[in-house]
Design a protein that fits this description.
Elements lengths: L5 E4 L2 E4 L5 E7 L4 E2 H11 L4 E8 L17 H9 L7 E2 L2 H4 L4 E3 L29 E4 L17 E6 L12 H5 L4 E9 L5 E11 L5 H12 L2 H10 L11 E2 L10 H24 E10 L14 E5 L7 E11 L2 E10 L4 E10 L2 E2 L4 E4 L6 E8 L2 E7 L5 E9 L3 E10 L3 E9 L2 E8 L7 E7 L7 E2 L6 E2 L11 E3 L2 E8 L7 E11 L2 E12 L12 E4 L2 E11 L7 H11 L11 E7 L6
Parallel strand pairs: 3-5, 3-8, 5-7, 8-9
Antiparallel strand pairs: 1-2, 4-6, 9-10, 10-11, 11-12, 13-14, 13-34, 14-35, 15-16, 16-17, 17-18, 17-19, 20-21, 21-22, 22-23, 24-25, 25-26, 26-27, 26-28, 29-30, 30-31, 31-32, 32-35, 33-34
Helix pairs in contact: 1-6, 7-8
Length: 597
């Protein structure tokens, strides 16, 4: 949980800001990689921190560890020949370190030429007398214990992988080998024990199971900004996470892969590439809307194994419907949703009227803009009906008001400008208005951002701890938050295995302008034997009914002239992470809190 002390400015809240933090960076030997350079640039931007010192430890002896152990000869060959991530590409350190003193704990010959001599005299250990706020450790070997108390906020280092499951091992490898849907990363403060750490930042990214290099790139490059974000927290007096007591980890140590594991890995990646190309060539996604004749809090119950879903009739081959939101007016439920037309490549907001769960009106388009529209978050406030649709292509979060409900709408206000927000969700709780969304530019399914305001029309301020969460399993909003017994519950998309693969219902335990924390309560998954077995990503309630949407992958036919184009596209597509674009009976499944991940 993040905590930021707030000061009062013009009747609202804004965080206090301190001077730039002073830090040193520690290497085994001065070889700077691309992701490390990005990390340092983020720290130096906007006066967050000032680099005072570069420390070069004792490098490994030449030839040490170069001979692989028996039974483990394939892995280093495979890695050297076939794995070349952008993140680990060496870059010239001169631009960042040209004016920074470099202290070598080994021989003076270890210091690269052209870099400045240390200001601490001939004794390199005088660096302990520098007034440092933190030391950023990029080395592979443990930092000398004497440095653990040399900076005000300790020694920070990255751990590639979920430190509750993987301890050591090649970054991003075992997650693909083991079929894990997510790859973790941790920024932690070192303690004197190898099995203890203080977690400063932790995130989970979708595993790129068809490319080890791409999986490393995603985890390393996406987490490179974390030290800068922790500096922002500290400069706003948020030090509870940094100074928290250490926690122990019991994760097993994963060694370098043996020959059998390396061969299995290659086989697995090859199969994943084939599956990915096949899906791209032969399958397409269809969504549809379903109605559950139960209130939404029924999904909180952990004893049930399924709920009946009545699916609307599917649309034609040219499109689909998704993102249902309802509102009750005059005894009937008005259902708004995205209607996507593949021929146009964009969505519009459409509407039907329900009576007792039955559709009693034709589908009618009610909001059509030059940009793609989806996620029509409709609600009532002060006797007026509003809709907050997703308009990420317009780079604004715009509020629309019904002037002739339900068919005519006008833009009432732009709540937040300059952001490509995905699935913006607005609600009132605890005497304030809150707006949750993800940012397409920052990973549309990955990072959760919050804004808050004293009233619906603002002024809207960003949360002091933005982004408050980095987790592909539970960041992107998935429908309308709701309260039960004063407790706030937030539906969030689980996109770890596929876009819109499931929903996590999270209990929000802390929500203030400077704090946010939530915990998973229930996982909602599609019925694998139902008509829409491949995903669910919206949950909302109106009039005692709960509305969901379901995804299925279907085989598609195509004219012969499209085969060459699709085959060429598929070959290119498998080399980069996929970016998603948004009367039968089935069910949805509930899984208890026991293992929500």
């Amino acid at each position: 949980m993040k905590t930021v002390e707030m000061s009062v400015i013009a009747g609202d809240t804004a965080p206090k800001v301190m001077n730039p933090l002073r830090f040193a960076v520690f290497f085994d030997e001065l070889v700077l990689q691309e992701w490390q350079a990005r990390c340092l640039r983020a720290l130096l931007e906007r006066g967050r921190a000032r680099l005072e010192l570069v420390i070069v430890g004792q490098p490994a002896m030449e030839g040490a560890g170069s001979m692989p152990r028996p039974g483990r000869t394939l892995f280093p060959v495979f890695r050297r020949l076939f794995v070349h991530p952008t993140a680990t590409r060496p870059v010239d350190p001169a631009d960042l370190f040209a004016t920074v003193p470099v202290v070598s704990l080994g021989s003076d010959a270890d210091r690269p030429s052209g870099l400045r001599q240390p200001v601490a005299g001939e004794d390199p250990w005088k660096i302990l007398e520098q007034d440092l706020d933190f030391i950023l450790h990029f080395g592979s070997f443990p930092v000398p214990e004497v440095f653990l108390e040399a900076a005000r906020y300790g020694v920070w280092e990255f751990h590639q992988g979920d430190d509750e499951r993987y301890h050591a091992g090649p970054p991003g490898f075992w997650e693909i080998h083991d079929g894990e849907p997510v790859t973790g990363a941790v920024l932690r403060r070192r303690t004197g024990r190898p099995d203890e750490r203080v977690v400063l930042k932790k995130g989970f990214f979708p595993t790129v199971d068809y490319s080890w290099a791409a999986n490393m790139d995603r985890a390393l490059l996406e987490s490179a900004s974390w030290p800068a974000e922790v500096c922002d927290d500290i400069r706003q007096d948020c030090i509870s996470d940094v100074l928290a007591p250490p926690m122990r980890t019991t994760a097993p140590v994963r060694d370098l892969p043996n020959n059998r594991q390396t061969l299995r890995f290659v086989q697995k990646v090859s199969g994943n590439i084939a599956i990915r190309a096949g899906n791209r060539l032969f399958r397409r996604t269809e969504w549809n809307i379903g109605i559950v004749h139960q209130p939404v809090d029924r999904f909180l119950q952990q004893s049930g194994t399924g709920l009946k879903v009545d699916w609307l009739p599917a649309l034609s081959d040219h499109g689909f419907v998704a993102d249902p939101f309802g509102i009750e007016k005059d005894g009937r439920i008005h259902l708004f949703f995205e209607e996507y037309d593949r021929r146009l490549g964009k969505g519009v907001i459409s509407h039907v009227e329900l009576d007792g769960g039955a559709v009693v009106s034709p589908i009618r388009r009610v909001l059509d803009l030059p940009v793609h529209l989806s996620y029509p978050y409709v609600f009532e406030h002060d006797g007026r009906v509003y809709c907050l649709p997703e308009t990420s292509e317009a780079r604004e979060i715009a509020l629309y008001q019904a002037v002739n409900f339900p068919h005519e709408w006008r833009k009432a206000a732009v709540l937040v400008d300059g952001i490509a927000a995905a699935d913006a969700t607005v609600f009132e709780f605890g005497g304030r208005w809150w707006l949750f969304c993800t940012d397409v530019d920052a990973g549309e399914n990955l990072r959760l951002f919050i804004w808050h305001a004293p009233a619906l029309f603002g002024p809207w301020r960003p949360h002091a701890a933005n982004p408050v969460k980095t987790d592909i399993r539970s960041s992107r909003p998935a429908g309308r938050p709701f309260t039960r017994d004063g407790v706030l519950f937030r539906p969030a998309q689980d996109c770890s295995r596929t876009y819109g693969g499931g929903i996590k219902l999270n209990r929000v335990t802390r929500l203030t302008p400077g704090e946010f924390a939530e915990e998973a309560v229930t996982v909602i998954q599609p019925d694998p034997t139902g008509d829409y077995p491949d995903g669910i990503h919206t949950l909302s309630e109106a009039g005692g009914l709960t509305f969901v949407d379901g995804k299925r992958l279907v085989f598609r036919g195509m004219p012969r002239k499209q085969w060459v184009r699709r085959l060429t596209t598929a070959v290119r597509f498998i080399r980069r992470p996929r970016r998603p674009t948004a009367h039968q009976v089935g069910s949805v499944s509930l899984r208890p809190r026991g293992n929500p991940s």
